[in-house]
Amino acid sequence: xxxxxxxxxxxxxxxxxxxxxxxxxxxxxxxxxxxxxxxxxxxxxxxxxxxxxxxxxxxxxxxxxxxxxxxxxxxxxxxxxxxxxxxxxxxxxxxxxxxxxxxxxx
Amino acid sequence: xxxxxxxxxxxxxxxxxxxxxxxxxxxxxxxxxxxxxxxxxxxxxxxxxxxxxxxxxxxxxxxxxxxxxxxxxxxxxxxxxxxxxxxxxxxxxxxxxxxxxxxxxx
DNA sequence: TGCTAATATAAGCAAGTTCTAATCTAGAAT
DNA sequence: ATTCTAGATTAGAACTTGCTTATATTAGCA
Lengths: 106, 106
What we know:
Two copies of one chain form a homodimer.
Chain A: H1 6-19, H2 22-31, E1 36-37, H3 38-45, H4 49-61, E2 65-70, E3 73-78, H5 81-94
Antiparallel strand pairs in A: 1-3, 2-3
The structure holds a DNA duplex.
């Protein structure tokens, strides 16, 4: 059925690559619950400061997350609701209930 | 909110990586419409025979697709309905209506 | 003003991915 | 038997990613 536009495939695979990494996916999962500052993300993900910062930069440049300075901390949030949807589906697929305690808690 | 199991993150990111490539994603998109043989997938994706075969092998080993010999051809199909769901969401996100002609046509 | 905490950036190496070209296998057809 | 077709496998080069270490930036504070 109608050929799938090559450009869309390209963009979609690029988007997937942007979240197809343990640290980055972990960040997104944590950000689902609301904005967090870098230091908390370091603790949450277990990545090193520099490493996490680089992963954040990558997702920032892809428009997946955005940041905002509040006092001494920089807070990150999910900027693109579509990625939130994607992570939701992933959670649904890969998390055996445990991850979805109430199913509604923005 | 409750810590996300590291193992799940790991599996999810591995699953994402398995489809985060133009050729592999293209294959999955085409297989959504039903099984196809390798030769048709070569034409559909534009990849070389060897290259496509390698991508198919990777997804086969991840349990995403399965194959079946019919006469001289080997037919591939999506073996894991969860990945079908994932691709659906991707299409929804990245394809501007054009890709979803009727929305129901297994 | 100089220090410290919080984060970003840069450089370089190690590891992983993807592609091409060549070879291999199995079944059909001649 | 040989040849053809469909597809898989292997090897290695080229490219990409990810990590570590070191350095830069910037705001608040003493």
